[in-house]
User: Fold this.
Amino acid sequence: MKRKPIVLISLLLILTATDALPAKDPVVAVKASKIITISAKPITDGIILIEEGKIKQIGRDIAIPEQATLIDASNKTVMPGLVCAGPVAVTKGDQNEQSSEITSAFRIAEAIDLDSKLMQHIRQNGVTTFHVAPGDRNLIGGIGTVLKPTAKSVGEMTLKKDSALWITLGSASTSGNRPPRSSPPQNFYYRRPTTRMAVAWMVRKSFFDAKQYAKTKQKPSDPDMDILTAALKGDIPVFMLASITTDIRMALDIAAEYDLNITLLQCSEGYKLASTLADSQIPVILGPDAFSRRSYYSNEEINWNNAGILSKAGVKVALASYSLNNQTDMLTLSTFALRHGLDRDQALRAITLTPAEILGVADRVGSLKAGKDADLLVLSGDPLAATTRIDRVLINGKTVYQAD
Assistant:
């Protein structure tokens, strides 16, 4: 009789502990007419079983648990969520810290705006993973980050905190700069670089100084030098914005000189150096301007089959819609590239698995495979057909957008 209170207290503790446990996400089953996996052959009349935000099973004749929530896409196409490796501006305020031309240690993750209206636009366009980067006004702008557009908290959204060091070659980082000459500087735009020669010299000098810094093990440590040293070691990839052949060659020379792991962004005239880029095994991210008649940077000579020529030469090509606001959406970019010469499989890969590989997150996103994140799109038809629309978007197994 004396032990009853102890038993009751124990039961109470057990019940309280059970109530405190987080509720498991419901099992989700997606039944589709066609599943485009990207990394393997398409599956006809397939099923994707999702548990705890991950793909548990994918294939045909999979038993659907009774308690599962069924998404019936039996007359639709399912594919991986889109991955945008180009810079997307979901930040508060200026993306550039223009008090200095070299801001290697600045992290754009500190400026993410969770209330940005662009978040919803990103989801509606089927993008489930995207890259945020510093702006192009500084020569070395800082560190980018890879996110998912769930907009709960930056920590929950983050897929890769320190994704790449961003460097802007060519005219973008010199725009607005003025040499002081004989008169005193009037504002901070009187700064370097003002020419392409200065761009090349300042990038080289930054990495040269970093090599010397690493040898001397200087104290106190310099955050900018620490980042540049990490890039020299290959611990942080380097993304270089280079549009015309002059800037592309500059990027290749600097990468070879300092043994840098680089990816080229924009690369509008990349088709002219396709074999060189292939031999160097340097990936390329092409944005909307690479398919436009508009000359944004330096009077580029546009070839609408830029992606096709690069891919055929053996270059790893990703497509990206930079702002995802006023720019063309990524499915349309992929369709355009297909129309002008890019292989169909590569056109789909260029907006899913290839950018995931470039960003270093392909173990989680970019294709539909057991064990990966359940980020997927339900489409009304073929993804590269002009009339196809996005009916539903899932991130981590949860619906984040559904068409009316």
